[in-house]
Amino acid sequence: MQVIAAPNRLPPFIAYTLLFLVFTSTFRIFATLPLENLHQSLSSFAIILLSVYYIFSLFLNIRDKKVTRLDVLMWIFILVNFFAAYQRCAIFRHPYYYGIMAQRSVLLSLSGILLISLLRKGWITIEQVERSFVFISLALLIVFYFFFLFVNPVKFTDMEFVAYSPIRGYRYRFQFALVIMLLFYSLFKVSHERKNGYMIIVLLIIFYLVYFLQSRTTLVVLAFTLMVYFFRNFSLREKIRNTLIYGSLIFVGVTLLFSLGYTSLFDKYHVLYSNVYNIFFGETSDEASSAVRFMEYNIALDYIEKNPILGNGFISNQWNGGWHEILGYFYPVDIGLLGNIFVFGILGTCLIYLPYYFCLNMSRQVHSNHVFFKTIEYMLLFFFLCMFFSAVNIRDSSSIMFLVCLLYYFRYDYFGSTVAELHEPLEPVIA
């Protein structure tokens, strides 16, 4: 592990304020709270500053022949998204200006590059980044509980963070990425550092997900991610022991709830997942959201057939009512991998997945139980799996690339030469 001298360390107040701004803008926290105007102002300001900073630093790096693989990956990621603006202009006669503005948040990905620079200069530390993440995500969890317990979502029916379905009723759909990260972080604190107090946070988040959020995709992908972690990080003896202990506790808890007559939640999930099953096997569904997704699949397939390689682009909601006015109820985000192929085409979708391949190679070179590192690693796996069911990259592209940059810092700076059997420079440079 490399230790960086810190003669230029920022005062704690400035460092934590800067990190707060980075996290809130990159993860679009205020966009899914009744603070949309604040989000727009903050993100626009951040985009301008990040773009100016990156252009200047890129000029210096090209001059000094220090362009890295991460730079190239960032260029590809941004260009693929901006090319989608060109495609929608060509196919739907959508003004290019609106296309760029609709995906300007992609430029917030540059916050990861800025963070690496600040860490390398010793202005902030990775411990400060970790503490900021924990504080902000805990604060968000408290805010989310407050809204679900005390604020009626009917007041915000005209905003995107409230959804309605006949089965689940009105629900808040907040930006939940940081809280999912907090779940992983807390689980790893318990399993690797034996800090059992974090189990309270784990239970609070799981209860929130199951009882309040009721998102099928989130729960399925979370289960897959935790299964991967379980099989990769425990011995056979530990797997058997943990399966018996926690499996028995879950069985007893479910049995107790059934015996007391609390079956409405189970009935609701049975309906939700059986509807997905029926749609998958070509049967009819009595749930509106499942039926709508089936309709969206058919719309997407028609357009993919016309533009399979380069895609159809992404329409801004600010232009003539967005998708709704052109194709009816249609949102590519809803239909996962098919939505990505619709927007970016087969070629663009392959390029969108490049950051995950890049991170997989880095993760294989690091064998560490550092909790924050593992949190980033498994959060990226969570995003990767989500993209098969919901095109989260269209909405959360900045969050994904921010985590890619943090993983890059851990691999090439924090662990550095302690990574075993390295046969490449400490930081890959393209001359």
What would you say this structure looks like, in words?
Strand 2 and strand 3 (169-172) form a beta hairpin. Helix 1 (12-26) packs across helix 6 (126-150), helix 2 crosses helix 5 (110-120) and helix 7 (177-193) packs across helix 16 (371-389). This protein has one domain. Helix content is 68%, strand content 3%. It has helices at residues 12-26, 36-63, 69-92, 96-102, 110-120, 126-150, 177-193, 199-213, 216-233, 236-259, 264-280, 288-306, 323-327, 336-352, 354-364, 371-389, 392-414; strands spanning 67-68, 162-165, 169-172, 429-430.
Descriptors:
two-stranded antiparallel ribbon; 431 residues; single chain; 3% strand; mainly alpha; 68% helix
